[in-house]
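We treat protein structure as text, and this decision shapes the records that our systems exchange. We quote a single record here, exactly as it is kept in our systems:
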Amino acid sequence: MAQVGSREWFDRYVAAFNARDYAGFGAYYAPQVDFQGQAAKLTGGQAIMDFYGRIHAQVDETVEVLAFVGSPGLVAAELLTTLVSRGDWPHFPNGPMTAGERRQSRNFAFYDIDENGLFTRIRTANFWRSAR
């Protein structure tokens, strides 16, 4: 079993996210996890999974880890996110998307981890976004 906060442990989280394994990536969330992202501010693992369920119904999303620093209490990562719209989505949280449109962004993400190995706070900041 991978140590909490290790690259292998985090890669399992990202793999579950990319596979749309909601139970798999949701298992990393503390019940009252605080999520502060560009497109939403949410509280609770279920709220995060519901949010991504709505997003993934409209776009294909993949996350790639470009840089990683981890410890049992905190993970910091540089992530490349790729979105491909399945259809026109005029009300996409980060601006309208058209069918087949592809966007990429580089983001910095920080994950606070409790003594049970669960994320208690996730903070992301956008560093670079492809032109629309």
Remarks:
- The chain has one domain: 7-129.
